[in-house]
Please model this.
Amino acid sequence: MEKFTPFESRMVALPRDNVDTDQIIPARFLKTISKDGLGDQLFNDWRYDAEGKPKPDFVLNKPESKACKVLLAGDNFGCGSSREHAPWALTQYGFRAVISTSFADIFKGNSLKNSLLPIVVPPDVHAELLKDPTGAVKVDLASQTLTLASGRKVHFPVDDFAKHCLLEGIDELGYILQQEPAIAAFEAAHPAGIDTRA
Amino acid sequence: MKSRTVIEKIWDNHVVAERGNAPTLLYIDLHLVHEVTSPQAFDGLRQRGLRVRRPDLTIATTDHSTPTTPRGFPIVDQIAKAQVEKLIQNCKDFGIHCYPLGSDKQGIVHVIGPELGLTQPGMTVVCGDSHTATHGALGALAIGIGTSEVENTLASQCLLLKRSHTYQVRVDGALKPGVSAKDIILALIARIGIGGGTGSIFEYCGSAIRSLSMEERMTVCNMSIEGGARAGLVAPDDTTYQYVAGREFAPKGAAWDQAVARWRQLPTDEGAAYDKSIVIDAATLEPMITFGTNPGMGIPIRGAVPNPSDISDPLERDSLARALVYMDLPAGKPLLGHPVNVVFIGSCTNSRISDLRNAASVLKGRKVHPSVRVLVVPGSQQVKAQAQAEGLDQIFRDAGADWREAGCSMCIAMNGDSLQPGEYSVSTSNRNFEGRQGKGARTFLASPMTAAASAISGKVSDVRELL
Ligand code: SF4
Model:
């Protein structure tokens, strides 16, 4: 995982509530066995017409959305399926953070494991961002600060451990494997009740 | 000792380590693997030179991108074929037992776990799939995970997890005829919304839940994620033990007695506190149907589709208005009588033998409306065999329905079974998201009985008129 560094970017606003992972990346693209090549399919069914041409009125296809690293989303973003293809598609498109009033649990966990920062803001901050939806924001994870175009600074919550992993660019598995003695001790004390190979 | 809920007891029993600011390291008793969310995880293991720590606690099957056409047929979709073959190769390479296409035990991962007796009370169960909560019906803590966590579990048999809030869903009273487990869960989600359970784990309790069969409990637990919850479970009781007893992987002999004695300690203690609670009166429930593009957009079968102009919150109003445009439905009118093109009876929500019996009881001696295509897709090859032994397949065929092989099928439309753009379905699956059943598809979620009644009339129907 790449180290998460501070950045400034304009936003792409998609202020719809309850955007599910089937919209972020439709199921028919999940037949891939790799993580790559999903950025072009991000929001596929909203983004392209029946012939596969970009729909000019969809926000991602507007010229000002080019190279934006922040998605301004609606409430309960990422609900539905557990597909990690959703954060893969978002990061491959170029997003590094999603701002919303809330995120679905699995999506949030999956994003943090892929250097995509879910930023939860209160409704009044969300409303201010929506007034200038293409405005620039600054994201600083170390100080957990989102700086709005107006200069207003907003503190956002992040789980300590996830923050550490993001800033250092390390993934969880390394930490888990270091716990080998505790895992072995647990297994010794708790013999398994099943053997799937039996 | 402090009074604890069943959720806390199972959690406490599986804590491996709690260190510094890291989340709890939790041990996983059963890991279910399928073709869609696993290939990148196995590649991750290869890159790091790791093996699967506990192949004996891991099981695989193919369900999502697999055809439901007769088993001898090849997989036409070459990308799907490659994915299915990749799973089989990965299982070979890492020593994992797999029930592949062609096995008489293949099926939807959440149907075969309980059916084989792999899922047992008190276990922690994970799968790279959000409907893992299904296994909660057996009194297990069953959590849906992403591919990184699939890799973590393969490598370490552990997950880093933060404790969720406990959310008591109490359903008391008796269901009226024509109303089923599916209607309980659709009514709950309509009430709390699809984000209502975010950050929580549901415990379903109350007299109505107690009187449900195991399979009905699976239907309820299955859709916990549709209420935003990380998991949902029912504390084990005699119904649970009777279900598990004698299944292939269930404990036998003295080990069985010890297991049941252990499981009897699991139910929530008197006086245990929950972070949140809701009470539902089962007697007031009616058959439910969804009209919109998320599972929270549900109404009683005779109710009217809500009107966006009645909603004050702008984003909520917008989301309802968008849903009605996508569904091409007028606001304020009932859904009853709306024509449908397809009826799908299947998915990990409603594809078990009791679901098929319910649907068959409505279809028996009747004919499917000539303008409707009806797919009946059993959840597993074992369910299929049982249904055929009971003659249910003949009832479906005589009625004019299509009887298929086991798989996810039109629940997710990855395998070639899908709606045409603009078509309407009544579906017993769990998601009505835009495009879920095919690009441009429009889905009404309902119970198997409602689906069967709608198949006969070709319109959204109230099954109670046929009872
Ligand atoms: S039946 Fe549907 S919800 Fe269930 S595992 Fe398959 S695709 Fe997922």
Notes: Chain A has a mean pLDDT of 96. Chain A touches chain B through 58 residues (CB under 8 Å). Chain A has one domain: 7-189. Residues B 63-64, 108, 110, 129, 131, 347-348, 408, 411-412, 429-430 surround iron/sulfur cluster (CB under 6 Å).
